[in-house]
Write a structure and sequence with these properties.
Blueprint lengths: L18 E6 L11 H4 L7 E8 L11 E3 L20 E7 L6 E8 L9 E4 L20 E7 L9 E9 L11 E4 L13 E8 L4 E4 L2 E6 L13 H5 L4 E7 L8 E8 L5 E12 L7 H6 L14 E13 L4 H16 L7 H11 L9 E5 L5 E5 L13 H21 L3 E6 L2 H13 L10 E2 L16 E6 L13 E4 L4 E3 L14 H21 L9 H6 L5 H22 L21 H4 L2 H6 L6 H8 L2 H11 L5 H16 L21 E4 L55 H14 L3 H26 L3 H17 L8 H12 L3 H13 L6 H13 L8 H19 L3 H14 L9 H17 L14 H15 L4 H5 L4 H9 L1 H8 L15 H9 L7 H6 L16 H4 L9 E8 L2 E3 L4 E3 L1 H7 L9 E2 L6 E2 L2 E8 L2 H8 L2 H15 L13 H11 L11 E4 L3 H15 L8 H5 L1 H14 L30 E7 L13 H9 L17 H12 L3 H13 L11 H13 L4 H19 L1 H6 L7 H9 L7
Parallel strand pairs: 17-24, 19-21, 19-22, 20-21, 25-32
Antiparallel strand pairs: 1-12, 1-16, 2-4, 3-4, 5-7, 6-7, 8-10, 9-10, 11-13, 13-16, 14-15, 15-16, 17-18, 22-23, 25-30, 26-27, 28-29, 30-31
Helix pairs in contact: 4-5, 6-7, 6-8, 8-10, 10-15, 17-18, 17-19, 17-36, 17-38, 17-45, 18-19, 19-20, 19-21, 20-21, 22-24, 23-25, 24-25, 25-34, 27-28, 27-35, 29-40, 32-45, 36-38, 39-42, 40-41, 41-43, 42-43
Amino acid sequence: RLHDAGGMTEEKCPQLVDYFVVAGLEGGSAQLDEEGQQRGGRVVEPVTDLAVIARGLGEEVPEGFTCIEKTQGGHPAELSAGLINNPHMYLCYRRGHDKPPILDLGVHYEGKEPTKPGWRVIETTPYSRSASLSSGGPTTHRTFLMYRRAPDSQALNTLGITDISLVMPSKGETAPHTFCRVDKNLNTGMWGPALYLCYKRAMAKANALVYEAGLISRYPEDDLDSFPLPDSVPIFCLPMGVTVESWPLNTKYQLPVFSTFVLTSACGDKVYGAAIQFYEAFPRDRLSERQSVHLGLVSVVDRRPITNRSLQVKKSICVLSHWPFFTVFQKFLTFIYRYSISGPHVLPLEKHISSFMHNVPFPSPQRPRILVQLSPYDNLLLCQPVSSPLPLSGASFVKLLQNLGPENSCALLLAVLTEHKLLLHSLRPDVLTSVSEALVAMVFPLRWQCPYIPLCPLRLADVLCAPMPFIVGVHSSYFDLYNPPQDVVCIDLDTNTIFQSEDKKPLSWRSLPRKHSKTLLTSLTNLHKTLEKIYMPGQEEATLEFLLTDYDLIYGRQKQLELEIQEAFLRFMSCLLRGYRTYLLPITQAPSERTTDCSSLFNLQGFLKSRDRTQQKFYAQLTRTQMFTQFIEECSFVSDRHTCLEFFDECVQKVIVDVEKPEDVRLIDLDESHSGEHTVFIMPPEEPQEADGSESPALYSYETFPILQPDLFDRPQDQLRVPARGSAPSSPAPRRTKQEIKLAQKRAQKYSSVPDMWSKCLLGHCYGLWFIYLPTFVRAECAKVRALHTAYEVLKHMETRKVVLPDEVCYRILMQLCGQYGQPVLAVRVLLEMKKAGITPNTITYGYYNKAVLESKWPSTNQGGRLRWAKLRNVLVAVAQFRQPVKQRRKSSSVGSCACPLSIRTAPRRLTRSLTASASLTGEMAGEGGGGPWYRGKHAGDRMSCLFFCSCLVVLPSPRAESSTFSPSRLCSRVLGPREAQGRKAVDENSNNMPSPSRGLAGKLQQLLTPTRHRALVRRAASVDDRKPGGGPIPGRRVSEQLDLTMVNAHILLQVLMSSCSLCRKCNSLVYDEEIMAGWTSDDSNLNSTCPFCSATFVPLLNAEICDLGPACRYRHASSPSTLALGVRASVEQSASAHFYGLAILSTNEFCRVWVPCVLCWRMNRVVPLVTVAYLSPLVLRKELESLLENEGEAVLSQGQLLDNHSIIFWNLVWYFQRLGLPSNLLQLLHSSELTTQLSQVLQPGDGNAVVRVRLLWDTLTPDTDQWPPLYVLWRIHSGMPMRNYSWRRHNHPFTLAFLEEVLRCVGMNEVHKAITLFLDTVAKQPGTPRVQRSLYREILFLTLAVMGKDHVAAFDKKYKAAYTRLSGSLGRDELRRKRAQPPSPKAVDCRRCFLVPLEC
């Protein structure tokens, strides 16, 4: 249940309080026995009077007083040894209970300092002589002793002085253990040793019986399944036992004492307890006569009752929680206690307890502040814990520094790092827990592995004799009963002293590494000075009213100082362990027995050699501790502390960067949750009313704290018991930690201002999206190992493209999948690829890597022969395919010529043979990947013939095409026949009845823009995009592996058209994909982009249209549609311009420019309405996807509800995966989606494998037909080219065919400035506002692409930019921008270039 603060994932909606406990003397006990009389031995009466006597003047020790004649070392304890006329003055004291005890001792220099209020100066001896300890000359100030006494009304249970001693440091004397020294020299004379006064404070008690605490009552009565109530809770509530005491009747009522403790479960989880101890009346009839005599309730002689004394017993109420909200618990317990001693009340006490336990939720980011109204006059504020990856604990670094000071804090840091036996003690039990927690927290990331009991009961004190290191805290009254072992380091938090046995070397902070320890000491010294200014003396002994009212006023300052002190220790540990990750040894071979040993996981000798020689002894001690060994294991394997360790690695990197001044590096962000605006109010339980509406009578009042009645509690509400939405089971590997998210945000902010880096940053997040989807994809694939290798090739491809990865999730997920599917060798290759990319794996990734290679089954070492036989088999199969009979090849040719409109008999036989062999071999090798027996069937020749036909149609230039330019209408007439072609030649009403363009123009433009003339004009005109850099297949992959031949058996029945082109409503301009990308911000919660023309922010939209290919597909199905599909795939293989995997997603330019005439020639009658969703930045989409997986689990990515319920995420993922050519199974969800129910009647029973084809369009899917048609559309209308049908209205637009040809001529002649001027002049001549939504750059660019293809985008950009620069001098940049003539920004151009594959125009 307890999580690190950075990863406090609410797997269940956590309950703030688990148990409420009442501890004390059990109610069923009979008359008390005599056991308690021996438990309180060695009780010393407090000091009540002090006196100074001058024996040299004949004064004697007063009656009842004890004279201190010797120092701690046995030397004379004369107070005036340094005076010339030594009067031989001594200090005397008296013990007793007749008056309030003395609380403090001090030395007063008269004239140098004023007398403190409440203090009494001893100016005379009992014989009325001066008690000055100095000579009293005119040049010296008189020196007196002074003391402070407890008030008369607080005579009991008050910290009082129980012993006094004098020490001479020059004689080697030190203050005894648990003694406090007054740092003022008593010897003010000219000679003699310095003399100091020491005293011991303890609880001034008398007449008490001590017993072991028991459980009186609890709520709930039944144990929780996740956390049973420990039996030892009562003795932790009352660690020094239950005391029965007799008090004088005039004793003031005692305030409750607050204490805290920590319980550690077997699995290492911590449970925090908060308790208050108080006194209540105890009946005399439960005491025996002997016990009454011991308590002073009966006279010793005549056994007569003494009536001027009362009998009190100690009791405790406590709450147990997994969260250390000690201040909140203290206020709640104090309210419950005050409620029990007041009254009468309408509601019973149990109602308030159950209301707090069941109605107060745990603070979260959605509700950072919770104000609980306990009553009309009592409230408490519950704030979200500090948002930090550091472990959540009950540590108070402020109290650590207050009670120990800078030097002792550093000395204890050394003691913890070297695993000493530490015994902390104090008279304040709440301070013990806070300081103990700080001791184990200040060595983060190391974790204390030995016994740890911050507040140890007397019953468990035997742990001090354990032969192992420990950190134990006890009440200082423990030393009234026992002496600590000699090998234990005792730390007195009340006197700020560290006590060790004399035969051991004293702990000193100077044993730490010198440079880092000095930096730490300086920081702590400065913070200690700040603490002294902020906190007034005596604030620790705060009154109840202060705790309930004034604490919130100093919350902000205290939290800030708390984090600054913790940051100082964190900075020291970061410097101490810097570079440790370099010496981690990854597992790269099959594991053995010693693989998991620390010596096999960490290069210890290399780490020690990297440290300074003067530090070798300390580092040798450190590396031998259990903490360090556990730390190395946690860094090497998957751990529940991976968030904390990853945060520490970032701190190490920060101090390495600023190694000269590490104190200037901020490592912890301050808590801002307290200043949150959202506050949840929790009202107190409602009081019942009578039937007539009047108030109910107050029936509940208590003489003592009651035994809880189960029937008075309210039952728990369901909302705090049910699992939260975040409880969906999901692998932790895809999740980014808070630290990784913050780091990714910082990188995005940094790169957002750098054009060439911003595009790579977006690209990195896109790949991150695919790797988050990868587990779902691999799970759905039959050949899972092949899918993993595909992901590995994607990683290599990312490295080739220098993608800026925001984090290590891509590598981590693949490593985890390697472990899940038993591929340890591939995991090692992924690690090597990661190091090759210059990325050092963090703790999380490194843990998953070692888990994968350690738990997976490694292949045996004798696999060489099997691999060689497999290679030989593949060679023989390939040879057999090449020796196919000529008869079968001729038969396939004849069948192919019948099935296809165009004969292939003119094709070269060599190409036919090679294509047939290649496809057959591919089918054999990919048999397990889903190719099926189709390749080896009797129709294999038919398939190969159509494959060759498609290849010839798309790739091979015909003799006629060599001597003439490409004409879409000719191709259409050749394939479809004259009637269909004639229909396609019909001129649209927007063509203004202009003649067709010159057939030689495209060829001339190609000659102007392309230096080499020998290329086939058909390929240039058709724009087979085989020359763009990086657009080909993933390097290192065989073509047969890249093609997913499952498409061959599929039917292309659905087509998805997608476009991200969006309209800016403010300036009525269309903004295109790369411009939208450039306008995104680094904020992962911002959906807006910025318009490049008016700088307005708008939400871009992603449009998708699902079309049913209908009759065309059926016609092609009769003519072997799978053969057509394979033909297209073969052409893609030739051009190497698109990526395919998984589903056969056809989005290539070749298909659009060649196969559109033969497949989409008929109008599609069934079209699903346009789907429009927000177009999300990859940063935003990743955040939303991670949130979806966190709430609903990974299974949602393979279910149809993803498309129906989370359409924004679905369509954005499809868009990005298509842009990058990454495989996915997302489009299979279309078959079961509600979007395609309208098309369900089209799908035949055998169409389960229908292929969904995706086309990514550059221009908008829904153009505004009230505007002028774009230039490229007019060109295609004039050319009779097939395209999507739009109901363009009749316009008197000025764009004639002559205008289009002139623009193209200017572009071809490298006179783009003339084309711009022509366009502006033509538009300016038209009356009214020009109805143009596209920028001038976009109009000319699309026109150029429509004529000459995508190859010339980069060349056109250069020419247009040069033309714009040229025109800026004459027309002015502002005027050109006003007319939307500016080119896209460098950021937009780089985004287009980085995503490689240009969209279709």
